[in-house]
Amino acid sequence: MVPAWVLLKREILFEHDASAFGGASDSMRRPRSGEEGEKSMRRARSGEDGEISMRRARSRHQEEGSTRRSRSRHEEEGSTRRSRSRHDDDLRGGREESMRRVKFRQEEGDSMSRYSMRRASSRHEEEEEEEEEEEEEEESIRRASYRHEEEAMRRARSRHEEEQDESVMRFLSYRHEEDLRAGRGEDSAPVRSRHEEDSWRRGSAGPSRTGGTSTTVKVPSRQDIKDAILVYLQSVKPDAHFANPPQLSSLRLLRPTKSIPQLCEDIISVVIASADKNLVALYAGPYRPGNNLKGGYLIYDTSKNSLLAVPQPPYDYSRADLGLGSVVLSLKEGKEDTYLLAELTKKRGCTPPKAALSMWRPSAAEWVVYPASFPPELCLPNCVFQADMCFSYRGSVLCWVDLFKGMLICDLMLHIDGRPKFRYIPLPQQSMAYDRFEHPWRAEEFRSVACVDGSIKFVTMDGYGQRPGNELSLTAWTLSTDLCHWNKVNECFVRDIWESKNYLQSGLPKILPLFPVLSMNEDDVVYLVVTRRKVVGCQVEYMGQYLLRVDMQHHKVSFCPQNTEQIRSQPFASQCSAYVSAYHKGKVKARKVEACKDKEMIWCT
User: Fold this and answer.
1) In angstroms, rounded to a whole number, what is the distance separating the alpha carbons of residues 273 and 391?
2) Which residues face 402 on adjacent strands?
3) Is the predicted pLDDT of residue 47 greater than 80, yes or no?
4) Which of 5, 347, 445, 584 would disulfide-bridge 354, Cβ 3.0–4.6 Å?
5) Could you report the per-residue pLDDT of 569-585, keeping only the tens digit for each?
6) Other beta carbons less than 10 A from residue 128's beta carbon
7) How much is the pLDDT for 480?
8) Is the pTM above the cut of 0.85?
């Protein structure tokens, strides 16, 4: 039986990230060996002091007894009995006194030892708290550094692409000038810069030093690269295996290993952008809306078990990215166009900011750009909107969600003079506010938005990164049908998950769950990812993952071990499995890697 909806891994990761998250748990911390040795030395010293006191008392007692006995020998015989009696009394009194002194010293030593142990324990607890604070501060610094490095790499790639474009344009201009001179019969060449000379030597044919003509490789144009990538993407075949949540489903894309063009070597990854009904839109390669990297789109149709390749829009430097800005919309059967792909970007250097909505329809076979204006809420100074996820709603509404800020929607049925009209919906005011550039964590770690049974729902883990785990609350909200306000539906605490019967029986420690995903057909049901790690020396080792199913209304928790690759980002929920046709139900299954000897697989994660 094909499931009604599935969970897919969003990203493709060929290389495993060795960065360690988290730190050692309290149960794994042990007192330092130096502190244990100090405590044992103090206990030993207190025992030695007692023995020394006993020996000294006995020595003094023996000296006093011998003195009394020597004096008693010189007394008269009549006083012998009385002297012996007095000697016995003194002997008993001296023994009792010495024993009292020894006991007092032992009690004093024990009290000092207990006081020293309490002070050592207090110092150990203070050191543990300081270590925890240092670990949290280092983790925050590390995450912030990672974000800055990622941004720097993105800017460097953009600059490199611009330089490449300029180099190609200079080369084409030079070839055009050469052609014109050849037509006029001119022999003299214009003065070129060193960079132009190097470009000419690498990419064109020209006179050699011996007077002949040197043959070099032709530099491919940008259109040649796009055509080669499109042909390559058309050769990719899908292979899906769907399973009921909380188990993860898999979607593999098989490409022929012998037909990979040199221009397409960078197309080694696929990332899910959005989904609607039977369609799943994927980014192929490093391309994202607003950049100029190689790649394009793949549209997976579960009803036909087929892939459609869509080229990326023509590059326009004036348009910048807004995050995950691509939404696929499934249209009614029987129409000329079965789907629509929309891409949202923004204009550079515009005040107030302007939007650009690019649309692809199969019948037109080209991208059409519609200029638009952002809502007034997003035109304020220092206001940045970055889409973390996107989806469609009611068959005509496109939604882009900034999990730190709010949701931007566009109803395609309400175009005014051919211009799309956008509307902004902020997140619930009762939920905790975060600043994207000051918060070191990704929003997908503790928040999510989805369309569930015709309603838009929002789930958040309030207090994430600011309060202890047992004080965090998992809260679900529902957007009203008029898309005006949020209604709080349910709430549960993370400690309730830890104290549930199934969680206790699993033997898992109290690990903070991450990456909440709303169920596509059940109200108040959230899926979470729990990652188990252990500290070995200075490294953190991965021990396994579990997918939790949390019924917030009935306070029930169930879990499923995750046996595939490690989940490093929020799983993607889709109802595409419900549209698998009867003909393809037997074909939509998982195949072993060993069976695909002539194929190289890209795992859609």
Assistant:
1) 9
2) 406
3) no
4) 347
5) 899 999 999 998 744 55
6) 13
7) 95
8) no
Measure the CA dihedral 356/362/366/370, to 10°: -20
Which pair of structure tokens corresponds to residue 228?
């080669």
Strand extents, DSSP E, 463-524: 473-479, 486-493, 514-518
CB 289 within 8 A of CB 321: yes
Distance separating alpha carbons of residues 124 and 11, to the nearest angstrom:
43
Angle in degrees, CA 226, 229, 235, rounded to 5? 145
Q: Tell me the C-alpha distance between 143 and 21, whole Å.
A: 10
Distance CA 260, CA 446 (A): 39
- 270 membership: H or E segment, kind and range: strand 270-276
CB of 557 closer than 8 Å to CB of 497: yes
Look at the chain and count its residues.
605
User: Could you tell me how far CA 300 lies from the centroid of its own chain?
Assistant: 25
For residue range 268-309, list pLDDT tens digits in order: 888 999 999 999 999 998 999 988 898 999 999 999 999 999
- 331 has pLDDT over 80: yes
Scanning the structure block, which residue is given the tokens 């348009």?
A: 319
Residue 475: CB partners within 8 Å, gap ≥ 6?
A: 431, 459, 460, 461, 462, 488, 490, 491
Cα Rg for the chain, rounded, in angstroms? 38
